[in-house]
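Researcher: Next sequence.
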Amino acid sequence: MQTKLLHFHRKNILTFLMLMVFIGSLFSVDWGKNIFHSGGLSTFAQMLQGLLQPDLSPEILQLALISTWRTLAYAVAGMTLALILGVILGVLASGILTSKKGIGRFLSKSIFRGLLGFMRAIHELVWAWLFVAASGLTPFAAIFAIAIPYGGILGRIFADMLNEVSSQPLNALRSSGATRMQQLIYGYIPFAAPDLMSYVFYRFECAIRSSAIMSFVGLGGLGFQIQLSLQDLKYDEVWTFLFFLIGIVVIVDVWSQMIRKRLVA
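Model: Next structure:
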């Protein structure tokens, strides 16, 4: 009983402290008259009007469909390459193909985990700028900009999943004389694959949003069309493209939930 009360008091104290920090941050903000610039309220009203009356003309709808397809294509191609990189580097970073003792396992885990850390440390938008500067406005810039950081994330997660596989089925394979590669194929991967695929679908949703954001650097897609419409102050078009982006994210989310339920079952 005392333990529960102590836990309850700790939660209340933490909540109170967080509330005080939030209130203090409000007082530190400059709530002057310059929150909205001159004409800012009218711009906000135009944006709200665009939300309520989006542009549904055939030309804009056709452009939105083409841009949605391009955004989705970037995300699919980037995640496919990211999954390949993640699986290969994840296996190497887990150290399961090397001996449990010795310098080889330590070097393998250190080198490849460091590589994965480097890949995911740089945001995909920065990767997009780098590839655009190197190769121009090509689809490869968008694909590799998604594949590298997402491959680093998937590789790290997959390495941790492989290291957390139960030792019982692995001991049975070892006792039967299975090689390390056979242990990987018949022991590690079957146990880690469902959780990995579930996480891949979650990252795919993120990749769609990243693909749209990277379009702002000029790679085409929904983000690029949103940028052009914002520059022309056509907020009704902006909301049309945003609704298409929301739509594909929701569809992918529902589809991925169905797939994840089947994988768990």
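Model: The chain has a mean pLDDT of 81. The radius of gyration is 24 Å.
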